[in-house]
């Protein structure tokens, strides 16, 4: 019996040693740290008080604590009310986990303005505040199709149904997610899905017969901001990308490719929609279809983009808003 006891004791000792970390280091915070009173070691600071995001500058926030915490930094523009959220956990906030390049989490987009950055820590009542002045807002590279800041381009083609409560106009108010203006699309059409449309021809951008886009569809992203209006008939925004494959300045629906992006606006507020051009499919009457041309995505051959506002004619008034329609290269839009 004594021999068996010694064997079991030996096995237990080996198991303990096997589970033990070298140099007495264990995973996770120590018991003393877990139950210690929270203290700020280094105060909440920003790397600089003014920043020119347009020039590619960025800022970072810093602080340190005596224990691991879950933290969140909320940056709010005093004029735009744009909102950026940076969050993480640990003992230290620094350049590696709290850098801001001028991007937005909750629309609208930041402008040249003063911003308050507030640090909150889970289960801690105190908050910490610093100030950042944006001298110039973040520059976004890409081919802008429409931001509506100058209204509707006379080279665009517009069609609006003669329904009830029709509104296909550029608005100027606090709802705008960037700049001062956006396009409002609304109305009641009880005989057709189409409420209205706008055609954006390449000619309107000084590049005829096609847009000045890269040829690789994996390098081209289409982006826009769309607003869902609650308690209305669900809107559908349909983008049609019409490729002029033979370069004759016209689109032939029977012999050339059209790719279609159907967006069902089933949310409330502004949302960024981004998609790689190579991932856009052909749709006919809402169902997948085979393109009529060479079957290849050729963004450099897009000659016209049509934007349609659609809604079920049996469900009454439909409304949505749109802004900042832009192509970007290599990656989706980061507003």
Describe it for me?
With 335 residues, the protein is mainly beta. It folds into 2 domains: 31-136, Immunoglobulin-like; 143-329, Galactose-binding domain-like (Jelly Rolls, Sandwich). The chain contains 2 helices and 20 strands. It has helices at 2-19, 31-34, and strands at 40-46, 50-52, 59-77, 83-93, 99-100, 114-121, 127-136, 143-146, 157-160, 164-172, 181-188, 194-201, 220-228, 235-243, 258-264, 269-276, 283-284, 287-288, 302-311, 318-329. The strands form 4 sheets. Strands 1, 2, 3, 4, 5, 6 and 7 form a 7-stranded mixed sheet that branches. Strands 8, 10, 11, 13, 16 and 20 form a 6-stranded antiparallel sheet that branches. The protein has a 5-stranded antiparallel sheet with strand order 9-12-19-14-15, with no helix packed on it. The longest helix has 18 residues, at 2-19. It is elongated, with a radius of gyration of 28 Å. The model is unreliable at 1-22 (pLDDT under 50).
Helices and strands in order:
Layout: H1 2-19, H2 31-34, E1 40-46, E2 50-52, E3 59-77, E4 83-93, E5 99-100, E6 114-121, E7 127-136, E8 143-146, E9 157-160, E10 164-172, E11 181-188, E12 194-201, E13 220-228, E14 235-243, E15 258-264, E16 269-276, E17 283-284, E18 287-288, E19 302-311, E20 318-329
Q: If classified by CATH, what would the architecture of the largest domain be?
A: Sandwich
Taking the sheet with the most strands, its summary is: 7 strands, mixed
User: How many individual helices?
Assistant: 2
* Percentage of residues assigned to helices: under 10%
Low-confidence stretches at least 5 residues in length (pLDDT < 50)?
A: 1-22
Structural class: mainly beta
**Roughly what fraction of the amino acids lie in strands?**
over 45%
The CATH class designation of the largest domain is Mainly Beta
> How many strand elements?
20
- Shape, please? elongated
Give the radius of gyration. 28 Å
Number of self-contained structural domains = 2
Order of helices and strands: HHEEEEEEEEEEEEEEEEEEEE
Distance between the termini: 74 Å
**At the third CATH level, what is the topology name of the largest domain?**
Jelly Rolls
Question: What would the average pLDDT be, to the nearest integer?
Answer: 92
> What's the CATH H-level superfamily name of the largest domain?
Galactose-binding domain-like
């Amino acid at each position: 019996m004594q021999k068996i006891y010694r064997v079991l004791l030996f096995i237990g000792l080996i198991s303990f040693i096997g589970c033990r970390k070298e140099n007495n280091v264990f995973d996770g915070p120590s018991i003393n740290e877990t139950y210690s009173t929270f203290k700020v070691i280094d105060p909440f600071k920003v790397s600089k008080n003014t920043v020119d995001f347009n020039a590619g500058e960025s800022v970072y926030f810093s602080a340190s604590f005596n224990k691991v915490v879950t933290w969140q930094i909320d940056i709010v523009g005093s004029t735009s009310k744009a909102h950026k959220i940076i969050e993480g956990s640990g003992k230290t906030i620094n350049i590696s986990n709290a850098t801001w390049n001028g991007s937005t989490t909750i629309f609208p987009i930041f402008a040249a303005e003063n911003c308050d950055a507030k640090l909150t820590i889970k289960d801690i009542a105190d908050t910490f505040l610093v100030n950042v002045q944006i001298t110039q807002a973040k520059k976004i590279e890409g081919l802008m199709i429409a931001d509506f800041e100058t209204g509707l381009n006379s080279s665009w083609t517009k069609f609006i149904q003669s329904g009830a409560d029709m509104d296909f106009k550029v608005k100027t108010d606090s709802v705008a997610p960037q700049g001062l203006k956006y396009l409002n699309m609304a109305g009641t059409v009880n005989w057709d899905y189409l409420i209205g449309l706008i055609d954006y021809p390449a000619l309107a951008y000084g590049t005829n017969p096609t847009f000045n886009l890269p040829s690789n569809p994996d390098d081209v992203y289409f982006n826009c901001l769309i607003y869902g209006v609650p308690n209305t008939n669900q809107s559908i925004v349909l983008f049609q990308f019409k490729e002029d494959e033979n370069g004759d300045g016209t689109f032939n629906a029977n012999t050339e490719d059209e790719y279609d992006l159907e967006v069902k606006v089933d949310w409330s507020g502004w949302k960024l929609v981004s998609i790689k051009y190579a991932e856009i499919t052909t749709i006919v009457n809402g169902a997948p279809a085979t393109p009529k041309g060479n079957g290849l995505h050729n963004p450099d051959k897009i000659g016209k983009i049509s934007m349609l506002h659609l809604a079920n004619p049996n469900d009454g008034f439909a409304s949505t808003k749109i802004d900042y329609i832009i192509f970007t290269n290599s990656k989706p839009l980061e507003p």
